[in-house]
Amino acid sequence: MPPARFEVLEDGTIAVEQSEEKQAPGLAWRDEPRGLSLYHGNCLELLDAIAAKYPEGRFDCIFADPPYFLSNGGITCHAGKRVKVDKGKWDKPRGADETHNFNLEWLRRCQRVLKPNGAIWVTGTLHVIFSVGYALQQLGFRILNDITWEKPNPPPNLGCRCFTHSTETVLWAAKNELSKHSFNYALMRRLNRGKQMKTVWTMPAPYRAEKSFGKHPTQKPIALIERCLLASTNEGDLVLDPFLGSGTTAIACLHAKRRCVGIELDAAHLELAKQRVVAEVEATRDLFTSGKIMKSPSQGEASLANSLRAVRQPEKP
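Now predict its structure.
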């Protein structure tokens, strides 16, 4: 069956031309005042539709946590127990060539929907990050930094045949060599107690409260995405997450007063994301209506950044 063609309508829904499709991808949930929209569908198809509607680019920033393709049936440790590495069919290894082709295709589409001065963040482990980095170079992105996310309490290495895996890489890249990307240097320095922020970020895994509605096998901590957004975007900017998962990017955008479009293919994960985001909207309502700052472990740097806006002092380079 040939692939369906999609069109983004004015109301945010997505029309599908192919009548044989059982269900057209479309808008699953929206909070218009806060600029949050969650879509259910294949990100490759939806990004083609967005690029057709907005040929000059639509998004100021993209945060992507794509499949790592590491579910090879091996053994790892989770909650003190030996478990198989099986995150789902979507994470099964595809072979080097197919994995790289996939990375090229979704990154090519992301580049099309970025505004001229937009930038992208992509997470990954050794299983996929080298392919992602090469694909970024092939497509003409300008890689700005490779962030090392250090996990202070990683799962132990049960095989004892190599070092314990305790980091993930986050690549930050501008759309192309001509892009004048945003970097809130002064804010990052203030958040780092007056010192230049380095590329090694030590942060724990998601807090238990971040998994209160259910668990996603590759869920990232809100603090990690918050820092990326605070560094590279401004209030009101529009952020895309093409692999929304459990909705963490949407929550980070809510905390940082950014708008967000999230796309998720898996219906169960989308429902989890929707529940989390709806609950967070209710919990943070005062943040937008009365100017109060919600004090929560999951909103640390965004809350601090809001407070620092009133204390803008000149910084020495």
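Residues 6-308 form a domain with the Rossmann fold fold (CATH 3.40.50.150).
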